[in-house]
Amino acid sequence: MSTAWGWAMLVASGLVDVAWALATKKSDGFREPGWAFVSLLLLALFVGLLTKALQVLPVGTAYAVWTGIGAVGSVGAGILLFGEPADATRLLFVTVTVVGIIGLKVAS
User: Fold this and answer.
1) What is the CA radius of gyration of the chain?
2) How many domains does the chain have?
3) What parts of the sequence cross the membrane (predicted)?
């Protein structure tokens, strides 16, 4: 697998991680069986994609980028879908996270 495919799989894994977080929230502590099932499927998918990506990418950079995609995506989804606060401090730190992700990608 090429490095480009590794990055594509890593980004896909990060996006699936966001979907997993949303499904887990919707599962209401796994009391909603349909959402719990979706959550477990998404968990398996993002771990599988991350595992494949780590075959060709440096683990430190890849894991940091993956975590950042999940964190930023989950914050954004929380704001858009669940009415979580979008105050200046939260948005500042999300921006810092994005800058860090870009810096790690550029440095690798």
Assistant:
1) 15
2) 1
3) 33-51, 63-82, 88-107
7-33 confidence digits (pLDDT tens): 999 999 999 999 999 999 999 999 999
88's CB contacts (< 8 A; 6+ apart) are: none
In the DSSP assignment, the letter for residue 58 is: -
**Domain span at 99:** 3-107
Give the residue carrying structure tokens 């921006």: 95
In the numeric block, the tokens 């595992």 are attached to 51
Give the Cβ contact number of residue 84 at 10 Å. Answer: 14
- Contact call for residues 13 and 53 (beta carbons, < 8 A): yes
- Which DSSP letter does residue 90 get? H
Q: What is the pTM of this model?
A: 0.86
Q: Which token pair is 1?
A: 């697998």
